[in-house]
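Box S2. Input/output pair 1.
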Amino acid sequence: MSARSEKRTLFGDILTALVGAFRWIVIVVLAAILCSGIRSVRTGEVAIILRFGRLLGETREEQVHDPGLLFAFPYIIDEVITVPTGKVFELTVETHNTQNYMGPNVRENGYIITGDQNIALVGASVKYTITDPVAYALTTADVTSTLHGIVSGSLATGAVGMDIDDLLTTAKDAYRQAVMTDAQAHIDALGLGVTISSMELKTVSAPMEVKSIFEAVNTAKIESQTVINEAKQYVELTIPAAEAEANARVAAAQAEYASAVAAANQSLVEFRGLLDEYAANPDVVLTRVYTEKLTRILSSIGTVRLLEPGETTPGILLQ
């Protein structure tokens, strides 16, 4: 066999091997493409299918696929998008917050302007869940950035109708509720498919340059309110006690009055009875009364001394 024939045979063997390998590669690629539509939807997720870029299904039950094994066409036909509906997302919004002293370039500082034209710093943490997976997946490519902008705008809008003193003290919760309501309204209007579950105000304060002054004012307000509450509490405790004591004294006086009147009436009845007896038998009554009085007097004295005749003071000496 010539050298040229040997080369042809070797080239043919190599070509045959390459064709065989390419055939297996094609088979593997085709198998991978065919199996690419088989997806496992995990717990806490749902899936939607886009067929040639169009949402598959007419109703929500047809569009949203629950956790489990999902069969779809290969990726070149169907695109499977999973949405974590069972997860609570947290978003931090610090657009209107400056950590340190504010710099001379106003645009580089984060702040809001209150209704009385004061500057305040606010920061918030928002927790939200996906309640409409179809809207969440198809409305916008970056829901987080859109939501951040909405909450940031609501933080600024909510402060417009508040004074700085109220915002820093008693109106924080009302401000938080107003921001949540306004942000959710914008989210629903855009159809983002998410719902704010809670919001926490991480920062609500005056700028560092005037923070100590505001804190002193707030402290004075709190102390004044404390004094007012203590005074109200004292009034609530003292007045009922005084009224109770007054009522007790009035009741005691009335009881003493009734007892005195009863005793006086009893004495009057006895005197009139004695007077009637005296009118009928004056001597007998006079002797009896004299004897009773003398007996009462003698029973109350301590010593009885009789003087002998001839002494300076004859008779009975009572001590």
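Box S3. Input/output pair 2.
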Amino acid sequence: MATRFGLLVPHFGEEADQDLLVEGARLAERLGFDSLWVRDHLVFHPHGMEGTDRTFIEPFVTLTYLAAKTERIGLGAATIIPFRHPILMAYSVASMSWITRRPFDLGIGAGNFQHEFDVIGQGGEDRVQMMKEQVQIARRLWAGETVEWKSERYQFNDVDIKPQPLHPVNVWWGGATPAAARLAVDFCEGWIPGRITFPTYAKRVKSIRKLAAEQGKPMVMTGAIPVTSLDESFAAATKRMNVPGLIKNANAQKWWEKPASGEFTKIEELEGSILAGSPDDIVRDVRRYQEHGCDLLVFDLRMRFKDHLQQIEMLAREVLPRVGGRAPVAAGAAR
């Protein structure tokens, strides 16, 4: 299966802007990207590597708005976290699918920030189990069942959702940990770790293949969302990135494979978690992902939102044709 290529859209941070969102989405569709992607937070406290601006636009609102401004490009979220009630989560996905008529990839995860759950009284929850239960409920609702549910966490009966999603909802478990890989095999269609170095990615994919074989299951889809910066050279591209912040964030990743020194100290050691450099550099690293069987690569341009449109054009014209991306969409293409 050919790799699909998506883009993280600027719905958060200092550069979040309605016009930029629309222009970028239309450009991405016209130039052959497969999908538009969003993040999820309830209380947004930016990672140190991405500044301090707390602007964050709700993901389902963002995707529905962009679908109304484009013709056919797919939609994705990585990762939705479990602060919503499962009926609300299922309802939002089904409604968005129906009204946009688009395929939607649902990345899910437990969330990274305790504070987001403390503020709504869920600080003591097992968020992994909560997310699993939410998906189990949502899948039954999306299948058109009338659901009765009784657990310690959720109790309800006589609940259904109509209409159901127009397309099957592929569920991806997000996270770079060994546990995330296991969860993807256990009950998802895919695994999407976000930022991850090549050695860690290779190790997780190998583990996923082994787990799937042991359980007699087909191999799940795999993806990644590397922070991307395209320029004349690696030096020029990384100059536009928050290198100290990226290195600090990398050292905080407990489950990443570390360099021989035991600590990340230079940006070159983050290959895979970042794609940076000339078009040739980016093509080389995309192909490295493809060699590991990567089914979905979402370019995270958060450090280049100031020249978001130019980055999209450069990726589309100088990278995608060399790695099997889709042909540009003709103007006025039907839904």
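Caption for Box S3: The chain is about 40% helix and 15% strand. The first helix runs from residue 18 to 30.
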